[in-house]
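Memo to structure team: turn this sequence into structure tokens by end of day. - J.P.
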Amino acid sequence: MSVSVFLDYSNQISEMRNILIADAGSSKVKWSVVSSSPEPFTFVTDGLNALLAEQEEVNAKLAEVRSRLCGMEIADVWYYGSGCAIPRVCRKMDESLRNILGVEKAHVNSDLLGAARSLFGHRRGIACILGTGSNSCLYDGEEIERNVPSLGYVLGDEGSGAALGKRLVSEAFKGQLPANVREKFLDTYQLTLADILDKVYRSSAPNKFLASLVPFLSDNLWNPYVYSLVLEELIAFVKKNVAMYDGAHFLPVSFIGSIAANFEKILREAAASQGYTVSEITADPMAGLIRYHRDEV
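Reply from structure team:
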């Protein structure tokens, strides 16, 4: 979009009632200005985990958002973000959003609620996230009714990119991968055991490192062992998460996230093996969140 076209567009939507929706992950934050205009104005900024970020970092990232808005007046902000399941974190984000973006109302919610509203709108169902991490909830059509705790990549996160990467590394170095697959893995990433241990036990984001290995699995699904590895991990997610909700077999089950979208065929097979039919699988929640909030403009 050229500068002149963008300025004309921003002037038009500045005269409308605008709401700002954020889908905030640790890797990136996707922002959409939604108004009565049929097309939202969408842009992306660097990732933000509100639980881990210092106040100065939060303020700096929101200052960038303010500059990207180019003077558009925003009525409400709906922020769905990583780390926003804790009240004190939500209060911190609420204050920063209102002060820096100059809005009267900021609604700060977890990325899990964002996923549920995106997938189901105002309908009841079981919403699942499969990305770098994993999570799930029983959603009543407005709010989260129950959440089986994820427990993170050390204690849980079944089916996530981190869990898949962890299994790949473990089975490679314990000699359980077929020899040709193991050699290909080591050749592809040029990582020694010492490198792996350093990145897992000394780096600030071991979960992201482990998830970065998932493309190898995706590229080698032709191998029955690799296919089974992915299938088993996705079945583990279904057993330890989806199956724990009362009435799960009678409710729609849907998934959001990069892992879910990338391994859609195997995910549906994993769910079917446990008696579940998956309704929807999508990589990105923003389109669904726009639909959910469209009636507010």
